[in-house]
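Obj.: predict assembly geometry.
Materials: sequence records (below).
Method: joint structure prediction, all chains together.
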Amino acid sequence: MTVQRITIDLPDAVFRALVRLAEATDQPVELIVTQSVLSNLPPSIDNAAPDLQAELLRMQALSNGEILAIAQTQVAPERSQRHQELLARNEARSLTSEERQELSALRQAADQLMLRKAYAWSLLRWRGQRIPTLEELPLPQ
Amino acid sequence: MTISDTLRRQVIQESNHRCEYCKTPSRVIGMPLVIEHILPKVLGGQDDHENLAASCYGIRSIVFTPDGSQVISGSFDQSVKLWDVETGECLRSIRSATSLGRMNITGVKGLTDTEIAALKALGAIAFNKSESPADEL
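Observations (raw structure tokens):
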């Protein structure tokens, strides 16, 4: 594994805490710092679809409140109802080709929303925010 | 007969608010679960409790072949079945994912990248995806 060396500025209190831990565990402070970085890398966008990657990267610049709003986004009820209606009619095979395209677009939008929501939660966690349990999240209506 | 709101709620409640196919909780999807027929209605499936499953928006349990004569259905018991639309006869039923090899499904349109990837992974598509448009097999 090749390595790169950089110099970083740490708040004094953080540095002292790292040094104390290094001394108490008889390890080099550099190793403690490296482990700290490796265990908390920013969420990757590499596995997202290319057309979504730029948008996910832009989320990095948002405030915690703005990211939380994305994480909590729900599909608008009228959109969700339309989606369900088209799915039901698709099952009965009664969609026109325009409606089929509409269903495809709704599905893609829902896919992308779920990805944005997941990425928003992972960003908040990376920033040290508390992530709610599944039960704490509201049920979509 | 249509599905009553009570039955709809009951099926979703029993799913523990997770898609019965992919197990994704509706709380992280951001959209309510939908009710789907395990045996498609076009094949005589009823609106009975035991034929209903709570599903996320992404599941399409049935796909028609291009000539409309056959239907491929997926079910949360992890079986994939090929049906004759006219007779309602189940032509083929597969449970093991690896047995999908050589089904060689072609001519189906409107699939997402995920569905295509899943079918490829299961061995149901024999050729390289680059040979066809993104949502077409």
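Conclusions so far: Chain A touches chain B at residues 49, 73-75, 80, 83-84, 87-88, 90-93, 100, 104, 106-108, 110-111, 113-114, 117-118, 134, 137-141 (CB under 8 Å).
To do: check interface contacts against the pulldown list.
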